[in-house]
Structure formats: C-alpha cells, structure tokens
C-alpha cells in the first residue's frame, strides 16, 4: 500500500562496500507486479491512517504526523499443528508513512507476550517508539 500498490522483490542488503568506501555490489529495487491499483492503494492507506488516528491503533499515533497502520492479534498453533495453543498469542502491528510521502515501513511482531497480548497494546507502542526515533533522526 505504501508505494501505490506495486509489489517489490524483497531484499535485505542494499549494498556491499569495499574497504575504501566504493560500492562493491548494489541491489536495485525490482518490481514484480502490481496487485492493486494506485487508487485502491490510496484508499486503503487512508483507512489505515484512520486506524491510527481514531481506531484500534491509537497507541501508534505520533503527534503532528499521519502514519498508516494495522493491528493484529492471532492465536498460536499447538505443537501438533492441529489446533490452537491455549493462552498463547501473537500480537502485531504493521505501519508505514508518513501518509503524504511514505518512506518507512515497520513490522512489529510480539510472539507470546506475557499478560496483555493484543497487537494494539503490545506492538503498536513499539512502532511508535521506533517511528518517533526515525522521524527525529531523519528530520521528517
């Protein structure tokens, strides 16, 4: 959603530098499709911004900025893979922004948290901390 609906091939390392600072190898972004239109992407992004500003993701809200996000809560599978494990959960939050010019995407996954387990309570605040630092460091 953050890039207009384009699906990109994921990569971990952007570039490898030589000891002298010159670039030895650089990975270029590679589009592999566009599963949703730009218009659909923009509409969903606005809904995700509302999730933070007035929905379940309010713990991710950073004053003065409009970010997009979605909370998640799921039960963990049991060891046999035949059902759910009693009392075991995964809380998550994925967000990106700023809405007007998305530059950063952050996914927080909290596996089997103690006590409260909803993504809105355990993962959204971590997103807020990380994104607040990104905003500060990058001067957004």
From TrEMBL:
Domain Penicillin-binding protein transpeptidase as annotated: residue spans: 1-131
GO process terms (BP)? cell wall organization
What keywords tag this UniProt record?
Membrane
GO CC aspect terms: plasma membrane
**Name of a matching Pfam family:** Transpeptidase
Subcellular compartments? Membrane
GO molecular function annotation: penicillin binding
Q: Which Gene3D superfamilies match?
A: 3.30.450.330, DD-peptidase/beta-lactamase superfamily (3.40.710.10)
Primary site of residence:
membrane
What is this protein identified as?
Transpeptidase
> Whose protein is this, by species?
uncultured Aminobacterium sp
């Amino acid at each position: 959603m953050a890039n207009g609906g384009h699906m990109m091939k994921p990569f971990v390392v952007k570039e490898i530098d030589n000891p002298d600072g010159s670039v030895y190898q650089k990975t270029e972004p590679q589009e592999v499709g566009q599963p949703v239109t730009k218009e659909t992407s923009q509409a969903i992004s606005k809904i995700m911004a509302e999730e933070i500003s007035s929905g379940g993701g309010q713990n991710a809200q950073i004053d003065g900025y409009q970010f997009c996000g979605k909370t998640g809560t799921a039960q963990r599978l049991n060891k046999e893979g035949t059902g759910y494990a009693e009392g075991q959960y995964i809380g998550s939050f994925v967000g990106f922004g700023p809405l007007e010019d998305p530059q950063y995407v952050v996914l927080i996954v909290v596996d089997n948290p103690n006590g409260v387990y909803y993504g809105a309570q355990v993962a959204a605040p971590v997103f807020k901390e990380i994104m607040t630092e990104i905003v500060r460091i990058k001067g957004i």
